[in-house]
Amino acid sequence: MSTLRFKEMLQDEAEAVASFNKRAIQLYEKAGFVKKHSFIQATNGGRYEFTAMENKIVRVKERKI
Fold this sequence. Notes:
Blueprint: E1 3-7, E2 11-18, H1 22-30, E3 34-43, E4 46-57, E5 60-64
């Protein structure tokens, strides 16, 4: 039995956070996300500003064969 290791392609992970939610933005920043841009989104009967945040993550997986 051997262990096959491989690296997945660099993946873009993205999230949108309500701009008024400062605690969530701080949490994402601690996790390595960065602010990319803001946009207006209609939701919950109103229009709100959201912040798009992105993080590039390299995932390493191990498999036994």
